[in-house]
Design goal:
Elements: E1 2-4, E2 11-13, H1 21-35, H2 53-60, H3 76-85, H4 100-111, H5 123-128
Antiparallel strand pairs: 1-2
Helix pairs in contact: 1-2
């Protein structure tokens, strides 16, 4: 599962054993809980793993916005980030063999990758408002 901050492009990745709403909600709640009031809204895809979103709304008060069917451009930041993840995990790669450690390494690499849209800063630098470079 991936969650991406639209403004900073900061990525959270977590391996989930099955595409079940309860497991997805658990991971989303952990992310939201760790960020506190930084999360203003959430836009998931239209998969059935997000069918229990109402539970998260009740617990956190964060609104969920679902994109129109077959409209991936409405979630452009996440779709682009998923494309970057595919550089490390190709489309038909067997996910059972992927370790949580590898998932963390990929997220770290992408969060430390300078982005043109961020004026060549990294998502980490922008999200945490810290400079990692001397220049």
């Amino acid at each position: 599962m991936t969650a991406v901050d639209r403004k900073t492009r900061f990525l959270w990745m977590k391996k989930i054993d099955k595409k079940q709403a309860a497991l997805v909600n658990q991971v989303l709640f952990e992310i939201i809980d760790s960020l506190g009031e930084a999360v203003k809204s959430f836009t998931p895809d239209r998969g059935k793993e997000f069918s229990a979103y109402q539970e998260l709304i009740e617990e956190t008060g964060i609104p969920f916005y679902f994109p129109d069917a077959y409209s991936p451009w409405q979630r452009g930041t996440n779709e682009n980030t998923n494309g970057l993840i595919r550089e490390y995990l190709p489309k038909h790669h067997e996910m059972d063999s992927v370790s949580e450690e590898l998932i963390s390494q990929i997220a770290k690499k992408l969060n430390l990758r300078p982005r043109k849209c961020l004026n060549w800063k990294t998502p980490y630098e922008v999200f945490f408002n810290q400079s990692l470079h001397l220049t």
